[in-house]
Amino acid sequence: MDITFILLLISYCASLVILLSIPLRRRAVLLRAGRRIVEIKAKKRAFFKTLFIVLLCWLIIFVVKIRYFSVFVEIAFCGTAILGIEFAARQFSLMTLNGAWQNALIVDSEAVLYDDIAVFPVLQLPASEQKNYPKNVLVIETKSRGTVQLIFKDENLLNKVLEVVFTERPDLKPGVEEE
Fold it and tell me: Model-level pTM?
């Protein structure tokens, strides 16, 4: 056995483990999120685009087998493919869960728990300065991950989601101080 064979075996096994973890990831998010209050429709063809990413990543791993590269390039190819499959698995696990939930916001491949939200920085600004920011983007400062931007279809949907967030967690509303 040579190093390339071992690298391919590890890459395909890692990608399989990542893909098999999708139901577990989905279940973990559902347990933390609570019940859905506002549903956001998933983007059209998102399933096929994500499936294409997985197939492309497997093809990248296969290229390592049919072409001769140095070991470092092979590691880079396989690592990139595994990262792509991780991205796709995150997409697959959250794809149909988009919306405002009792304890979380889920949009595309981002899930933000209300407990993790520190502040909505753009909503803290005066109205004259808020005009400089897109009306369909929600900027969230989290306690654990830094700044997260959630992009909505339009401003009305964003306002519905914010209404749910402020109903579930009034302490997150701008201007309301924690006691």
Answer: 0.81
